[in-house]
Amino acid sequence: MLSYHSTKNSGFTLVEFIVYIGILSIVISGVVGFSYLAIKSRIKSDVIATVEMQGARVSSIIGQTVRNAKTITSPAAGASGSSLTITVVDGAKSPTVFDMNTGALRIKEDAAANVNLTSSHVTASALTFTNLSQASTTGTIKYQFTLTYNNPGNALPYNYAKTFYGSATLRANP
User: Fold this and answer.
1) Residue 142: closest CA among 127, 161, 129
2) Which helix (DSSP H) or strand (DSSP E) does residue 85 occupy?
3) CA atoms within 13 A on the CB side of 167
4) CA pseudo-torsion sign 30, 31, 36, 38
5) Interval 79-116: pLDDT, tens
6) Is 84 domain-assigned?
7) Is residue 153 within 8 Å of residue 53, measured between CB atoms?
């Protein structure tokens, strides 16, 4: 009797191993690439949100303060300047001054210390106040400023700047 012994080899052949490694490499590359894009997108969204929120907050503070003010002291009617001085109803906060120093927008109420309105995450520039007031009007101020996200390494996802525009008219005070 002839016995035929079949030896069954378990394991992978070299070709199968190379194919599996190739497929695994493609899958891992896809996951890593997708993760990188997701992280980069999240960073960009955070940067934009930071600039937008700070710009909206500063614009709101300036607008509300001007609307509740009694008079515009500086800049003069028809003129522009890099700071705004107003007289407010609460004498303890008059004059109120908005200006910019070393890249920060700030407010100063009477003799109190300057308070930064922007954080260290952004740099402010191009602050301009234009007094649009005309004779026999309560007074109107137009303002603009630019906020740029601080990006010391100049990494692309962190590059973002926006210019904010606004105006406010003093309410008629009795």
Assistant:
1) 129
2) strand 84-88
3) 9
4) positive
5) 999 999 999 988 888 899 999 999 999 999 998 999 99
6) yes
7) no
The DSSP call for residue 7 is P
Burial group, residue 32, by CB count within 10 angstroms (0-12, 13-18, 19+): exposed
Q: Whole-model pTM?
A: 0.81
Residue 8 lies in a domain: no
List the domain range (segments joined by +) for residue 129. Answer: 14-169
Q: Is 22 part of any domain?
A: yes
pLDDT in tens, 1-13: 555 555 566 677 8
Number of domains in the chain: 1
How far lies 60's CA from each of 29, 63, 67, 71, 164, in Å? 46, 5, 10, 18, 11
Is 74 part of a structural domain of the chain?
yes
d(CA 110, CA 107): 10
**Which of the residues in the chain have pLDDT under 50?**
174
